[in-house]
């Protein structure tokens, strides 16, 4: 794509490169999946195409459910690229939590509780609609505008899927828990607030209970692996 060729890479992950450019006058991010040379070309093409479709599907399903995500402008299946809105005037939830913890110390949880409740509510709604993010971290959540307004935007659905199983939802929550506690030490109470809000937001109590039960099962498996290791 000509746009990608003349745009500069500003971030690279394990699966894709991100470029900044303009899209008909609008600030745009291009996410382009690159070729994995260790895979057979046919397999690599197929897997990359499937991941792009899954990412777009999950993003659009979130928007239909009222969950803010970047607007998708264009999908180029030939180059496995997604052109999407650049979320301006935003900070990652990770950087915001770290900033508040550094500034407020032991009182940080009081200030951050509304954010934890908002995160739990958003994730409860997402799982209610059988959307699995696949890479839930506080780096993949943005606060747009004044952080106190709690305008959350979910980004990076590169590992997403649309699944109804409690196992997938439990694993999704476990990934967030591990990432959350790793990035934000001594924030166990905040994560409990996220789970409480998650439970309250879910429209189906039974499905929510199953997801939380699976979360505990995954935790136990993780503890056993740690002990064996």
Could you please describe the fold and organization of this structure?
- The chain folds into 2 domains: 2-85, Phosphorylase Kinase, domain 1, CATH 3.30.200.20; 90-228, Orthogonal Bundle (Transferase(Phosphotransferase), domain 1).
- Strand 1 (8-12) and strand 2 (16-23) form a beta hairpin.
- The mean pLDDT is 91.
- With 229 residues, it is an alpha+beta fold.
- The radius of gyration is 18 Å and the shape is globular.
- The longest helix has 24 residues, at 41-64.
- Strands 1-2-3-5-4 form a 5-stranded antiparallel beta sheet. A 3-stranded antiparallel beta sheet has the order 6-7-8.
- It contains 7 helices and 8 strands.
């Amino acid at each position: 794509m000509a746009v990608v060729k003349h745009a500069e890479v500003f971030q690279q992950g394990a699966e894709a490169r991100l470029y900044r450019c303009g899209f008909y006058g609008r600030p745009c991010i291009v996410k382009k999946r690159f070729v994995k040379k260790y895979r057979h070309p046919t397999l690599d093409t197929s897997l990359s195409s499937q991941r792009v479709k899954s990412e777009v599907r999950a993003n659009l399903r979130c928007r239909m459910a009222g969950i803010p995500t970047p607007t998708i402008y264009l999908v180029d299946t030939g180059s496995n690229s997604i052109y999407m809105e650049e979320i301006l005037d935003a900070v990652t939830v990770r950087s915001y939590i770290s900033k508040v913890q550094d500034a407020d110390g032991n009182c940080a949880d009081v200030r951050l509780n509304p954010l934890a409740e908002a995160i739990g509510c958003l994730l409860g709604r997402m799982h209610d609609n059988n959307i699995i993010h696949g890479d839930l971290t506080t780096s993949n959540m943005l606060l747009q505008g004044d952080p106190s307004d709690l305008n959350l935007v979910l980004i990076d659905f590169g590992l997403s899927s649309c699944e109804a199983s409690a196992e997938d939802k439990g694993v999704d929550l476990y990934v967030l828990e591990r990432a959350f506690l790793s990035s934000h030490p001594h924030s166990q109470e905040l994560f409990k607030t996220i789970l409480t809000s998650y439970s309250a937001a879910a429209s189906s109590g039974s499905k929510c209970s199953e997801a939380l039960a699976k979360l505990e099962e995954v935790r136990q498996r993780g503890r056993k692996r740690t002990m064996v290791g």
